[in-house]
Amino acid sequence: MTFQILLQVILFGIALSADAFSVAVTDGLTYSDINKKKSFFIAFVFGFLQAFMPLIGFWLVELIERLAGEFAGAQVGSIASKVVVWVAFGLLIFIGGKMLIESILEMRKPSEEKKERLFSVKEVIIFGFATAIDALAAGVAFHADVSTIYTIWLHVSIVLVITFCISLIGLFLGNQINKLLKGKYEISGIIGGCILILLAVWIVLSHYLGI
Asked: Torsion angle, CA of 164/171/197/75, rounded to 10 degrees?
């Protein structure tokens, strides 16, 4: 692997991790019981899924090509890339909308009845899946660009490390913003919900408009 290709993979990893960064900021903003252990868990889940999804896309095209030919593999890859974009959109709209509505309702409650949003393993995995599923389409591009199995594993390893590090930065920034808000988690929830909804729209626009 030449330096130029390595640089391209690193830049590609940074681009893929942008979604995870946005959600990491949201988690840092809204989880009231976040700590180092939970931050590393969130970052690892985001990094693992962001690397795992392109791998699925790569092997899906490889399998279809072996069974039905190169043209069929390209067709399946094209269809899959469109489907996963809308799945990611739906998940993020649902989660972001739910967070936004719940936070608005929480603001209307007396202070003694307000509940803080707590860390949830299930929610983190759903977040990770929602932000990484559109990266499945990247696996199709990997299949066209890489020539050996060794190279694809190196690609996804770099993506995992980059997403892990960037997610940690996002969690830290979100936590610092929350401190500036002085623990007003309902406001943090509104901001977080808006971030997720905007991210959902961005995923669709970036796919169809190439931005």
From this structure: 0
